[in-house]
Amino acid sequence: MESISKGLRGSNVCKSHEASPVIPFDLVIEILTRLPPKSLMRFKSVSNVWSSLICSQYFTNRYQTVSSPAPRLYIGLSFLDNSHLKCMLISVSPSSDSDITISSFDAHQDLTKRAMRGYITHVFRGLMCIVDEASAQIYNTTTRQLVVLPKIEESSIIAGDHVNKNIKYHIGYDPVQDRYKVVCTVATTSNKVGESITYLSEQWVFLLGGDISSRWRKIPCQSSHFPLTQELTIKGHMYYLAWIRDLDHLLVSLDTSSEEISMLQAPEDNFCPITVTLIECCEKVAILHYIDLETEGMMKLWVMEDAEKHRWLCKTLVFQSSQVDLFNKIKLGVVGTTRNGEVIFAPLDTACFYIILYDLQKNHMRKVEIKETPNRHLTKFCEAAGFDDVENLIYL
């Protein structure tokens, strides 16, 4: 940062004419951290010094501590335009936390680029993961930068001819080294041993923002398993539910700093892969099973109270008839949780423009409509892709 500071003091960008005083470096940073991301992206072209400052890890971290962006729900739209199928990514956000209707939106036209292919798996700290078969792309929702990750050429499972092949990508954050990583878990079913089903799996890690020679690194794992849920990141650890043999469950924990994988005992229950997800509940890992949500108005919630003692607390959530009427037996999927701890449910396989927010602590459910959406009448498919409240200036 010292070289950037000297560059700013000696550059013409801080002087309107010869007699003008030089703006102190600390004051420049304070001013820039209070500007919207669109302005910062334009100011990168002012000079190489300004570009280096705005793209630096120091400024990125400082900006996240100062800025307070509104929470945003990212939605993918598929619609017919002159008989051609097109896609668009939009973000919607309420004007205040008390609003029950989301009305504002910003259209991210970048999704219509040909280079952006696949389906969105999740959004994490301003970074979006897009997967297309065995490849992945990372999209910065703030800077609009799109990076295509290299394929994992050394994976024997990806290269092999397997019928049941499972490939999952997830973005994680290493708080020790202050860097982002993408973790890929590749798994498949192995040959049956008697009546038992076994699995083969591999874990790979890719460092975001590395040099051009960056590549996937394979990390060791003590037990092969088959991922059942998408990963969840909490306090430098990534978690996901998996089958280890037959249909026995366990909770996999990956330390994003040390890259060590641990196997934790999961609750003894039969989980349906389609209606189970990991969520954060009071800063703890929780398993939400909502197989009976649409039909019986019930869900089960397990919260991990003590990982070392394998202690889980179970709670059955029962909805009132008025709450059940909100989704009217429409199949729902979990998008994520809000900063207030509400679980976000969104309709599946439909073009309905609404979400359902459920407060786990208060057992309160409310329906939130999304209005003023572009191409509303042309939309054939609408999918809530993720929820996030971070503006990330990191250069990938």
Automatic annotation (TrEMBL):
CDD domains: F-box_AtFBW1-like
Top-level taxon of the source organism: Eukaryota
Signal peptide stretch: none
Sequence ranges assigned to domain F-box in this UniProt record: 23-63
SUPFAM superfamilies: F-box domain
InterPro entries noted in UniProt: F-box-assoc_dom_typ3 (IPR013187), F-box-assoc_interact_dom (IPR017451), F-box-like_dom_sf (IPR036047), F-box_dom (IPR001810)
PANTHER family registered for this protein in UniProt: BNAA05G37150D PROTEIN-RELATED, F-BOX DOMAIN-CONTAINING PROTEIN
Protein name: F-box domain-containing protein
Originating species: Brassica campestris
Biological classification of the source: Eukaryota, Viridiplantae, Streptophyta, Embryophyta, Tracheophyta
